[in-house]
Amino acid sequence: ASANIGVVGLAVMGSNLARNLASREGNTVAIFNRSYEKTETLVSEHPEAGFIPAQTYREFADSLQKPRTAIIMVKAGGPTDAVIDSLVEVFEPGDIIVDGGNAYFPDTIRREKAVRETGINFVGAGISGGEEGALTGPSIMPGGSDESWITLGPILKSIAAIAEGEPCVTHVGHDGAGHFVKMVHNGIEYADMQLIAEAYDLIRRGTGKSPAEIAEIFAEWNKGELESYLIEITAEVLRQVDAETGKPLVDVILDQAGAKGTGAWTVQTALSLGVPVSGIAEATFARSLSSHPEQREVARALPGPDEEFVVTDEAAFIEDVRLALYASKIVAYSQGFDEIRAGAAEYGWNIDLGAISKIWRGGCIIRAQFLNRIADAYAENPELPVLMTAPYFAEALTRGQASWRRVVVTAAQAGIPAPAFSSSLSYYDGIRADRLPAALVQGQRDFFGAHTYKRIDKPGTFHTQWSGDRTEIEAEDTH
Ligand code: 6PG
């Protein structure tokens, strides 16, 4: 036994992670793949890595030092379960199985419980950063037991991205906590991407600028408070020219956005937890809407506004869009962190929100300057109930709100869809409202279903006898 870490599953993410591990001082990496051919290829293409290839799970287990530690990098779902079963057969109590895929956190909770019964540790670890990140330094979000973190922590720290001198990995919490946080990361990623896309669309349709010209605007934005990986790659995508047609690539890509499910999970989970992640939800739905060409084809006949959309002051409009983007982004992150807080309370995880913002500063897809501000906010008040009320964000929202409102109004009048911009603004106005029309909804509920209501002026639960003499009586609280 000479390897301190093993990787199972050698598709792109797995191979890159294995190479990353092998490149760090102190690691010797055992590798296993269902078809041995792939293992051999990786070994021959990367002799510098010193991989220890295994043909069988038994051989793989024998090549690992105890406690054996292996990271699974296979397709989420059935394939993951199959690999876990095989590893459980050859591993021993105290060993550690890590699932580095995008697993749905309830699956991780289930697997952790089942594997724990054998005495083996099971860790669901979210890994973000795509292929490039896996190779050079991802952001890693491991869950699992404290015992597993003792062995796993130093290994993961050795391969994670570094931000402000700190490795982008922390022990998020027990069992499914890591995959839960990775799921919300992806939800925020969806919102961030949709907001950027809406900003691009508004500028393009408002000013008639070309994708290449808009790329320059994004490159400029990337020097300021919006600095982030997603803004940076947006400029790259907009600059790209299609070799075949000579057109901007963005104009020849079919306008249907796909999704592998993590955004939908974030929204489904938020619905169950009762957390309004409206920005993430709109971003997810925007992808769904785009992906129904048959509906879009017939709906094309519906009328838009009569007046043509003209922007008189281009520079002012672009600055409005920038500020609207920033304000909406603050809302999206605030909602995402709210979901993590609620999830932690529901599942009994002790999640340090400040630590999460720190490990997202590097390596992952949503990495951005901005996350330093979130870290500051939680450092100042770890119990912050609404992230966007922290002084720095409140100031940015104050500064941006007039622009934000103008952009949403303009989009509505021009007939340009801006679901993430406008839902974020509605959330902002909803959560800061003195009084909401929820009072009327509660009255309606009481009318048709005797669902009762509370009063603002005295304790207790009440019901108006709507079908009788409409007098009010005290009632049992039925919610
Ligand atoms: C990451 C990405 C990664 C992957 C997602 C994309 O953090 O590295 O989020 O996990 O690219 O699966 O999700 P969709 O395919 O649903 O857009």
TrEMBL record:
User: What EC number(s) would the UniProt record show?
Assistant: 1.1.1.44
Record-listed NADP(+) binding positions: 9-14, 33-35, 74-76, 102
**Residue ranges of every copy of the 6-phosphogluconate dehydrogenase C-terminal domain listed in the record:** 178-467
At the top level, the lineage of the source is: Bacteria
Q: Pathway, according to UniProt?
A: Carbohydrate degradation; pentose phosphate pathway; D-ribulose 5-phosphate from D-glucose 6-phosphate (oxidative stage): step 3/3
Q: Which Pfam families match?
A: 6PGD (PF00393), NAD_binding_2 (PF03446)
Tell me one GO molecular function of this protein.
NADP binding
Active-site residues per Swiss-Prot or TrEMBL entry:
182, 189
Record keywords = Gluconate utilization, NADP, Oxidoreductase, Pentose shunt
Q: Which reaction does it catalyse?
A: 6-phospho-D-gluconate + NADP(+) = D-ribulose 5-phosphate + CO2 + NADPH
Q: Name one GO biological process term.
A: pentose-phosphate shunt
UniProt: substrate binding residues: 102, 128-130, 185-186, 190, 260, 287, 445, 451
What is this protein's function? Answer: Catalyzes the oxidative decarboxylation of 6-phosphogluconate to ribulose 5-phosphate and CO(2), with concomitant reduction of NADP to NADPH.
Q: What NCBIfam families does the annotation carry?
A: gnd, PRK09287.1
Q: How does it assemble?
A: Homodimer.
Task: Identify its protein family.
Answer: Belongs to the 6-phosphogluconate dehydrogenase family.
Task: Output this protein's name.
Answer: 6-phosphogluconate dehydrogenase, decarboxylating
Q: Which organism is it from?
A: Microbacterium hydrocarbonoxydans
